[in-house]
Specification:
This protein is α+β, with helices and mostly antiparallel strands and 469 residues long. It folds into three domains: 263 residues, Thrombin, subunit H (Beta Barrel), CATH 2.40.10.120; 87 residues, Roll (Pdz3 Domain); 97 residues, Roll (Pdz3 Domain), CATH 2.30.42. It contains eleven helices and 29 strands. The strands form five sheets. A seven-stranded antiparallel sheet has the order 8-7-4-5-6-10-9. A hairpin with a 4-residue loop joins strand 9 and strand 10. The chain starts with a strand and ends with a strand. 36% of the residues are buried.
């Protein structure tokens, strides 16, 4: 379970006399109606929620008990600093949801991340070894598979999460703190919530149903017994539930399951444009009565947005009739659609609304990444670099408008590390020459000037420095 701490910075009920709202939802008006039980709903849904246990072998370093003793340091210097490497088993736990009767299970990426062994325990206490079919860090979702033979396992149907409303009753089922399968209830507190650091798609269902560590990957279900979301994070001061939990909506879960079932890599549609939030000042300048939508800041040449007719300054108000109020919402809407199809965009341009059609294609691998390890007598020696393309930028969760050469990793004992280079740095210029491709960088590095002058982008900032040869 991902926890956000302040110090650290996720039976349709019938009967007469029910008050009704426009969408058919009702609130109880009598004691008898309030005493209605969730038991029939839980009885149907709980068998499809599983416990997940993982094991991971890690290397731990053991040191001499005398290594910090001043006397031994004086006579033996660093001889006692050398420790022995030992293997250690790390265990973790979480939850999962059976979404197909053949044993396909959805859980969180962070539940099974780097696990060497994954064990799934069903509600009836049977245990199965699980294999990872698909693992997507960007959504914090993973799909597992167990083999039940010819048996059809109980599973949960996924509902359309766009139909959810604030105030809907929900039930959370999972394995909090490893105590065993536990059921809690609450309501949907908010929709389209951002929870930074959970995933690249910050568009969550917020609930006050108690969610705790171990609930990760468990089910959030509605009163019709269908899956509304995968519980994934909480906001907490203490590590326990304070009534602010987050679940990944099923419409995002469906895209990951669909990719897993087709055996393909998880690929999503690419907008081909940079975007920013509409502020009150921007809203007033473009004729909006209140801040909403997403304003286009740049358009990738030849990308889907340019071909759809989008221009810098356009404000996207809705995708397929669903309003978008911020960049995270637009990213979610586009990310849940199928490649090869199209999306209808409602756009505000020059004070007038119009419809544009966006073809949904994947981010291209142009130019080829050409991953290379740099060697020689220069500041980049020991680093691994690649040509940036929209596809690679998406993999690295950076702006797909970025171009040039990026550092992927570097050795901790290399000249590149000693001069302060870091993974994720985008090389802009070397000795005054703009770097567009690895080939160009290699040509410049083949020379041996007295001073290397480097400019790079790191986390949105431009850094420049000089290194003597």
């Amino acid at each position: 379970m991902k926890v956000f701490a302040i110090a650290l910075g996720l039976l349709v009920c019938s009967g007469a006399g029910w008050a009704k709202s426009g969408n058919g939802a009702r609130v109880p008006e009598s004691d008898a109606e309030i005493r209605l039980s969730y038991a029939p709903l839980v009885k149907r849904a709980a068998p499809a929620v599983v416990n997940i246990y993982t094991k991971r072998v890690v290397q731990s370093q053991s040191f001499s008990p005398f290594q910090n003793d001043p006397f031994f340091k004086r006579f033996f210097a660093d001889k006692f600093s050398m420790g022995r490497s030992r293997k250690k088993i790390q265990n973790s736990l979480g939850s999962g949801v059976i979404v197909r009767s053949n044993g396909l299970i959805v859980t969180n990426h962070h539940v099974i991340n780097k696990a060497d062994e994954i064990t799934v325990v069903l509600a009836d206490r049977r245990e199965f070894d699980a294999t990872v079919v698909s693992d997507d860090e960007r959504t914090d979702l993973a799909v597992l598979k167990i083999d039940p033979g010819s048996e059809k396992l109980p599973s949960l149907e996924m509902r359309d999460s766009d139909d959810l409303q604030v105030g809907d009753l929900v039930v959370a089922i999972g394995n909090p703190f490893g105590v065993g399968q536990t059921v809690t209830s609450g309501i949907i507190s908010a929709l389209a919530r951002s929870a930074g650091g959970v995933s690249d798609f910050n568009f969550f269902i917020q609930t006050d149903a108690a969610i705790n560590p171990g609930n990760s990957g468990g089910a959030l279900i509605t009163m019709d017994g269908r899956l509304a979301g995968i519980n994934t994070a909480i906001y907490s001061r203490s590590g326990g539930s304070i009534g602010i939990g987050f679940a990944i909506p099923t419409n995002m879960v469906k895209t990951v399951v669909r990719s897993a079932e087709t055996g393909g890599k998880i690929e999503r549609p690419w907008l081909g444009a940079s975007m920013q939030e509409v502020t009150p000042d921007i809203a007033a300048s473009v004729g909006l009565s209140h801040p909403t939508g997403v304003i286009i800041g740049a358009v990738y040449p030849g990308g889907p947005s340019e071909r759809a007719g989008l221009r810098v300054g356009d404000v996207i108000l809705a995708v397929n009739g669903r309003e978008v109020s911020e960049p995270a919402a637009l990213k979610f809407r586009i990310g849940t659609l199928k490649l090869g199809s199209s999306a209808r965009l409602r756009v505000l341009r020059g004070g007038k609304k119009q419809q544009l059609v966006l073809d949904l294609i994947k981010a291209p691998e142009k130019p080829p990444r050409n991953i290379s390890r740099l060697k020689g007598r220069h500041p980049f020696s020991g680093s691994v670099v690649a040509n940036l393309s929209p596809a690679l930028a998406e993999e690295l969760s950076i702006d797909t408008m970025e171009r040039g050469v990026i550092i992927l990793k570097l050795s901790s004992v290399s000249p590149a590390h000693r001069v302060g280079l870091q993974p994720g740095d985008i090389i802009l210029t070397v000795n005054g020459k703009k770097i567009r491709r690895i080939k160009m960088l290699g040509e410049i590095l083949s020379h041996h000037p007295r001073v290397w002058r480097v400019s790079l982008r790191r986390g949105g900032q431009i850094l420049s420095f000089a290194v003597e040869s």
